[in-house]
Amino acid sequence: MMNTFEYGFSELGIGEESIGRLLGSGNEYPYDEFSGLVMELLENASRVCSVKAEYIICPVEEWNSDRQSVTLKGVIFNLKHIVYRQLRKSESIAIFLCTAGPGPETLVRKAMEDGDPFASYIYDIIGSEIAEHASRLILKEVTNAAEISGMKVTNRYSPGYCGWDVSDQHGLFRLMPDNSCGISLNDSALMSPEKSASGMIGIGNDVSFDPYPCITCPRIECLYRKTHE
């Protein structure tokens, strides 16, 4: 059964502080100089985003330690070492999609066309934050559903991170053919709207949640690593 959600911007918990952490590093964010601009751009983004999310739970058919893969409904996902290690005790997997909608990337393009690359950059960060916070909300939804059955959950993992090849996006979308989020996937496994996210959350009796997941990931250039360190 597909579980679908729509969130208002205020439910995401995005504010000047969270954008500031991504613009700078700790106390390096110049609040006095950029505060008014960030608040204005956040307000603009809040009016055009259309945040949608959904998930479906798939029983695990097979774990293959040699290939470091999992099979769900006949689809094989080659998770690679880090993600396989974190998910391998799961009895079922929640496949999720979420999106900020096309609005934020429209603001990115418009600001660039208007000759304001800095505003375009901030809009891009805001769009990424909307998709990130929508992913956090869908994790809470899955956690609540799992706890009703006495189960625990893992962190969420997405293709393209922690060594998991982005091409496995195609498998995720095959398991969600009627996605109400309206996200499409091109041949290179890139999503549209761009500010979207997909991935897996493990569910089971013996799984665990890592409060510091960035420690296990080698992607040091990730925008969100600084917010978790």
Characterization of this structure:
This protein has one domain: NADH Oxidase, CATH 3.40.109.40. It is 40% helix and 23% strand. The protein is built from 8 helices and 10 strands. It has helices at residues 9-12, 16-23, 31-48, 80-87, 103-113, 117-148, 169-174, 225-228; strands spanning 3-7, 51-59, 62-64, 69-72, 75-78, 92-99, 152-157, 184-185, 191-192, 196-204. The protein has 229 residues and is an alpha+beta fold. The longest helix is centred in the middle third of the chain and has 32 residues, at 117-148. Strands 1-2-6-10-7 form a 5-stranded antiparallel β-sheet, with helices on both faces. Mean pLDDT is 89; it is low at 224-229. Helix 2 (16-23) packs across helix 6 (117-148). It is elongated and about 50 Å long.
Structural class designation = alpha+beta
Strand content: 15-25%
Shape category: elongated
Average pLDDT metric: 89
Q: What is the string of helix and strand elements?
A: EHHHEEEEHEHHEHEEEH
The name of the CATH topology is: NADH Oxidase
Number of self-contained structural domains: 1
The CATH architecture can be given as 3-Layer(aba) Sandwich
Main CATH class: Alpha Beta
Helix content: 25-40%
Rg (C-alpha, Å):
18 Å
Question: Helix tally?
Answer: 8
Sheet with most strands: strand arrangement: 1-2-6-10-7
Residue windows where pLDDT falls under 50 for at least 5 positions: 224-229
The major β-sheet equals: 5 strands, antiparallel
What is the number of beta strands? Answer: 10
Write a brief caption for the model:
By secondary structure, this protein is of the alpha+beta class.
